[in-house]
Amino acid sequence: MRQVWVTELEEGEIGEDDAVMAVAQAMCCGSVEIRLAAGGRANLIATENCCALVDDELLKQINCTSSVVIATVTNYRYARAGERVATVKSAPFAVAQSQLDTVLSILNERGAILQARPVRDPGVAVLYTDPVHGDRARTLFEPVVQQRTERYGGSLRYAMSAVEQEEPVARSLQHLLRTKPAVVLVASTTAPAGPEDVVGRALVRLGAHIERFLAPVEPGNLMLLSYKDDVPIVSAPCCFRSIKPNVVDLILPPILAKYRISGWEIACLGHGGLLT
């Protein structure tokens, strides 16, 4: 080697490694650790199984500034321990201190871009319903429900079957709620026309709050999301016949991470909601 090139920082500049570490520390929270990599890069690694919540608008704002950019996994993405969930990269060698201060000021004011919410004690309860015999739904759907639950770190702990009538469905849901699951899934062989149908009426009878009917996701348009106190109850007709991606794959990771999804957030799933 005949030549060695070096860079000397000028006044008002900060080195690339220091810059990306400062941004990485300000942009994340939760079950994540920061690892410095070569070339002015910091990687954010999940320290346990978790769900990544991403503030997309804040991410866009930061990426419109100069000198530092951030890439993350998609919002609501389930990540296993050791998986990279984000990376921060700077311009080569140095970043203007004023530009870094602007980025850090925005993050300090707005909060984290990425939350890595841990998936802990993710017990799932399931109610299988059918107009004739609930066990028919259980026979049809249980293997897929098991696979889908385990895919996102959940454990299928409690299950019941019921005839799809208002009183038996409400009674069964009440029994399942006593087990204090992270979520109750309703796997039905029918496709409801709205909250006025059997499952919706049973939820009202139970005292649950109907958060949202209809999701801009295909498959899974007829999803019904409700809450009984802090426990989400998700009816997703036709979503347990196959392991192909559907609306349950989008909302189950944050639910298992004990994040309360709102009706507005369901409405925002339309961009990218065409899954097949």
Pick out the low-confidence regions. Answer: none
Counting copies of identical and different chains, the oligomeric state is: single chain
Helix content: 25-40%
List SSEs in N-to-C order. EHEEEEHEEEEHEEHEHEHEEEHH
Going by helix content, strand content and strand pairing, the class is alpha/beta
Count of helical segments? 8
Give the strand order, joined by hyphens, for the main sheet.
12-11-13-16-15-14
User: What is the number of beta strands?
Assistant: 16
Can you say what the CATH homologous superfamily of the largest domain is?
A: MoaB/Mog-like domain
User: Rounded to an integer, what's the Rg over CA atoms?
Assistant: 23 Å
Report the CATH topology name of the largest domain: Molybdenum Cofactor Biosythetic Enzyme, Chain A
- What would you say the CATH architecture of the largest domain is? 3-Layer(aba) Sandwich
Please state the overall shape, judged from the principal axes of the Cα atoms: elongated
Largest sheet: 6 strands, mixed
Overview of the molecule:
With 276 residues, the protein is an alpha/beta fold. The chain folds into two domains: 106 residues, Alpha-Beta Complex (Aldehyde Oxidoreductase, domain 3), CATH 3.90.1170; 148 residues, Molybdenum Cofactor Biosythetic Enzyme, Chain A (3-Layer(aba) Sandwich). 32% of the residues lie in helices and 30% in strands. The chain has a six-stranded mixed β-sheet with strand order 12-11-13-16-15-14, sandwiched between helices. Strands 2-10-5-7 form a four-stranded mixed β-sheet. The radius of gyration is 23 Å and the shape is elongated. The termini are far apart.
